[in-house]
Design brief:
Layout lengths: L5 E6 L7 H11 L3 E6 L9 H8 L8 E2 L4 E2 L2 H7 L2 E7 L1 H9 L5 H8 L4 E5 L3 H5 L1 H12 L3 E2 L3 E4 L5 E5 L3 H12 L9 E6 L4 E4 L2 E3 L6 H12 L3 E6 L12 E4 L3 H11 L5 E4 L6 E3 L19 E3 L3 H8 L5 E8 L3 H11 L4 E6 L11 E2 L1 E4 L5 E3 L3 E2 H17 L1
Parallel strand pairs: 1-2, 1-5, 5-6, 6-7, 10-13, 10-15, 13-14, 15-18, 18-19
Antiparallel strand pairs: 3-4, 8-9, 11-12, 16-17, 19-21, 20-23, 21-22
The chain binds ligand PMT.
């Protein structure tokens, strides 16, 4: 996919600049041509000699090369690129890109580039969480740039949190997916549910669950990359899809999710129910906060929520594919097989909370895809992004047949 592609790699002054060497090696190995444009502070973290040895090209930092008199045209570099990747992208460079502050070769090239731009932020967790950084990243997203979200883990400061530049292998994978010409879901509409639902007890309290939306959002991105038009009905989560084309419908409760799903399902070719829907809701949510200044312990009477997957299962017409998830703690396969029948599904994806690294909140999952005839395929522990790709490929095959 990357053979012959021209990649401009922008490197800025962050400790993760050491990973750029690996990134270049991986890109060159796949047949890409890489041109490095580095900021002056980037050179403090990795030397141009290393980078140019790996790319086979001089590293560009300045508008003008003093010893040869050569003028480095940011316009030409921008036009040469099939993709521009800024990795690592510091808070400073992200801020400059968001605001058009073209005071170095890298940002000037960025402003001239017509190619898709991929930004892999890397910084300390508090810088990452600062409203200014968040706003600048959102601005870049709104320009159509692809943000390769940083991972969580131990940072250069030894603090633990979100801010580690994504691994070079992952960045290459994002590029490969982008350039994949194969769009098997082009022209197809995919509907997804993701995240938890919140069922109000009173204006400040709710019944919910630990779903973060990571699995469902990864599926939405994977479907969009395969060419589908994606509608994602999402419960309250703190994440966003990476693919700009994904249309998000935000809901809070199971009833709101059911209403949105019922509205969108008739126009969909494929529907995937990944949300962790609360099975019960308070029967009489209070309009005012329940006070604790009384000896009486309140009792919350619950009513059953609608089963969204089963509702769509009843509505399903010829040609539509409906896929559910099963989140189990025990008797996984038997429960999943029961759900596939009772909800009229074409496939169910079983994940179990008894498997370490699977289920809620993790970046990884372990799933078994089960079909109505009992045929099943278990995937090993993988990143949710990779699991999503495998699931979407399996669903595409089912939908075709
Ligand atoms: O969001 P993450 O933190 O990444 O976690 C991902 C996940 C664990 C939430 C996800 O992988 C998952 O398993 N989602 C389904 C959770 C669930 O509710 O499973 P269930 O076995 O209770 O439900 C079976 C199926 O019916 C699911 O497709 C569910 O969306 C659907 N359902 C359930 C209840 C209900 N009232 N309406 C429904 O549509």
């Amino acid at each position: 996919m990357l053979k012959g592609k021209h990649i401009v790699l922008g490197i800025t002054g962050g400790i993760a600049a050491y990973k750029s060497a690996t990134l270049i090696r991986l890109l060159v190995k796949r047949g890409a041509e890489v041109q490095v444009v580095i900021t002056p502070s980037g050179k403090e973290f990795i030397t141009p000699v290393t980078l140019s040895a790996l790319t086979g090209k001089p590293v560009i930092c300045d508008f003008f090369t003093a010893n040869t008199g050569q003028w480095n045209s940011h316009v030409d570099i921008g036009l040469w690129a099939d993709a521009m990747v800024i990795a690592p992208a510091t808070a400073c460079t992200i801020g400059k890109m968001a605001n058009g502050i073209a005071d170095n070769m890298l940002v000037t090239t960025y402003l001239s580039a017509k190619a898709p731009v991929f930004v892999a932020p890397a910084m300390d967790l508090d810088m990452m969480a600062h409203p200014s950084t968040t706003r600048n990243i959102e601005t870049l997203r709104s320009y159509g740039n692809h943000i390769i979200e940083p991972a969580s883990g131990e940072l250069a400061s030894h603090l633990i949190g979100k801010g580690r530049m994504e691994e070079p292998e992952k960045i290459v994978e994002v590029l490969e997916q982008f350039f994949a010409t194969d769009k098997p879901l082009a022209g197809k509409k995919v509907l997804l549910t993701a995240g938890p639902t919140y069922e109000r007890i009173d204006p400040v309290r709710f019944i919910g669950n630990f779903s973060t939306g990571k699995m469902g959002y990864a599926l939405a991105d994977a479907a969009a990359r395969m060419g589908a038009e994606v509608t994602l009905i999402s419960g309250p989560v703190a994440i966003k899809p990476n693919e700009r084309t994904v249309e998000v419908v935000n809901v809070e409760s199971a009833c709101q999710m059911r209403d949105a799903a019922v509205e969108h399902f008739p126009g969909s070719d494929i529907a995937i129910m990944c949300a962790a829907v609360a099975d019960y809701a308070p029967a009489d949510p209070h309009d005012h906060k329940i006070k604790r200044e009384t000896d009486e312990i309140p009792t919350i009477r619950l009513v059953k929520n609608p089963d969204i997957a089963a509702t769509l299962g009843q509505m399903k017409r010829e040609g539509q594919t409906l896929v559910g998830f099963a989140l189990e703690t025990d008797n996984g396969k038997a429960n999943a097989e029961r759900k596939i029948r009772s909800k009229n599904l074409d496939m169910i994806v079983l994940n179990s909370l008894s498997d370490p690294g699977a289920g809620f909140g993790t970046d990884t999952n372990i799933v078994t895809m089960i079909q109505p005839d009992g045929e099943s395929k278990t995937l090993p522990l993988m990143q949710k992004t990779e699991v999503a790709r495998e699931i979407m490929q399996a669903i595409t095959e089912i939908h075709k047949s």
